[in-house]
Amino acid sequence: LLFPVSNLCGKCRPRDTDLLQPSLNFLYWSLHQTTPCSQQRAVAVLLSNVSLLELLQKVLECTWLWSPPSRAAYLSPEDALLCSGWLLVASLLLYQHRYNTEVHQTLSVDLTEVLNAVIFRNKKPILLLVSIMQFLRAILRQNFSSSLLVIVGQNTAPSATQPQPSSLQDTALHPLAMQQVFSLVVSLQNLLVHKDLLLSQAVVACLETLVEYLYVKNQDVALHVASQPWHRFLLFTLLSGGQKSFLQPEVLRLMTLFVRYQSSNIISQKEISQIIQEAAEANIAELSEATSCALHLFLSQV
C-alpha cells in the first residue's frame, strides 16, 4: 500500500487536504506501527519517492504562507494537514538517520521560521506547535546535519556583522544564535504554564533535547540555560492549583533535567527529598505510565 498511497500524495497539491490528510496519516502510521525490518523498507520506499518529498516540501512551506484562523484552539483542515506533514518529516528524519537510508531528494527548511513559530506562536493551534516541536527535536538530535534536510536561514552562514560579545558563542552553537536560544527557552517556559498535557509533554521533551544539544556544543551555555532563576518560579507555577504533587510527569522530567545539569539553585536537596517521600507513600500501581517512566528517570538520575 505504501507505493500507491505515496504515489497518490505526489500527484496532489497542498490544497487537496481531504485526500492528503488521511494519506499522510497512513504513511506516518505505517512508519511507526510496523516491525523494525519492515520499517527500514518503508523508509526506503518513501525516501525514494521524489514526488512525495516535493509535495512535503510544499506542505511545510505552507506553514508560513497560510493565514492562521481567528481562534488558536480551532484546528482547520489546513492546519491538520500541516500537523501531519511536520510529524511525517520528523519521522523520516529519525528513521533515515537510524537506517542510513539513501536520499533521492532533500528537503529545505528555514530554521528562523521554525524557531519563530515556537517563540511567537502567532495563533498557531496547540497540535501544530507540538508537531513543529517534534521536528525541532529531530534536527537538534541530529546536530542539524541530516542528509535529508538542508537548513537555511539568517544564521546558517557565519556573518562578520554579528555582535562581537556573542560571536564566539554563536559560532559554537551554529546554526543557532544565543539570542534565539534564550528566546526559545523563555517561550517554552511560557507554554508550560498553559498546563495542557499534550503541550507540556512536547515542551519538556523539546527543552531536554535543546539543553543536550547545548551541552555538546558549549557546556557553559548549557549550564547557564539550565540554571536560569526563572525555572524555579516555573516549578512553583506548575505545582500551584489543585494538584500540588511533585508526581506529575512534566514536573518530574523538569526536576530530572535540573538534577542532571546540577542546577542546585533551581532544585534543592529539600525538593529531592520531598519527591522521594511522595514516591515512597504513593501507590505505584495507580500511577500513570508517563508518571512511572518519569519517576524512574528521576530516581536513576539522583
Automatic annotation (TrEMBL):
Annotated GO biological process: meiosis I
Gene: Mei1
Matches recorded under InterPro entries: Immune_Signaling-Apoptosis_Reg
Organism (species): Tychaedon coryphoeus
Stated name of the protein: MEI1 protein
